[in-house]
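Comment thread on ticket #2218

A.B. wrote:
> Attaching the input chain for the structure job we discussed in standup.
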Amino acid sequence: MNSNPAKSLTTEREHLALNGWMMLILNLAVLLGTCGALIWLLIEASQNNAHVAGIIAALLLEILAIISLTGHFTLQPNEARVLILFGAYKGTVRRSGFWWANPLYSRTRGRPGAMGSVKISLRARNFSSEKLKVNDKRGNPIEIAAVIVWRVEETARAVFDVDDYISYVQIQSESAVRHIASLYAYDRGEEQESSLRESADEVAGALKKELLERLEKAGVVVEEARLTHLAYAPEIAQAMLRRQQAEAVIAARQKIVHGAVSMVDMALRDLAEKSVVKLDEERKAAMVSNLLVVLCGETEATPVINAGTLYS
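C.D. wrote:
> Ran it. Output below, let me know if you need it in another format.
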């Protein structure tokens, strides 16, 4: 029995940042005010060596104002910023606009270029998988590819619960495509059996459901998942093509024979009901044989006129 409990998912919480324009005016006012005060205090100090404490206070305020200016940031529509203070998650800003937050909030995390930036795009993205060579339900090697439309829903999970959410989406998507391909046959075999080629909507729904389960840990939702490529592997493509052609010929023959039998039955019944001619069993058998040859033959039948009787 596993004694380690499953790690709980990080929950996103909204952080209300301050209006950036208001804080910009305030920071500039403090910066310019302390700058002017510092100049005045230095002039006074040069005359009587006083105001040392005031100069130190003005310098500190000047430094704080400069640091405070670095707390401004902008967010475009469908963007979010995750705020981290000394390793602790403080919240996520989702509203677009010009904002100000504590300048001590970390602006980077982890490897730069991978998941370094805590500004996350919430826009829908496309991931198109490579052509994967897998075995279908019957063990036939096939090539399959899919396109997945996804977006980040829970920013805290995307940043803290996985190392690189973009790479996580790519790897899990390819794994899900492989698994779905193994659950279905390429072509319909048994009656009412779903297949990759004929049940596109069902396969897409199953793929989307599995992706939602796999990517929930990364705070990602899948809006659409569709197969973009489906074919037999090159080494069996010709053999499978011949099999499909044979199945098509058999299916066509079955329809032709079924239709011919129906037409012969209708002809015999009409002749009997309208008393056009009375046929014994041997003449009926000959008529059925002739009609089936005419109706089922691939070439046009050449009529032969019999001047005598059936028995001569």
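A.B. wrote:
> Thanks. Noting for the ticket: The chain has a mean pLDDT of 80.
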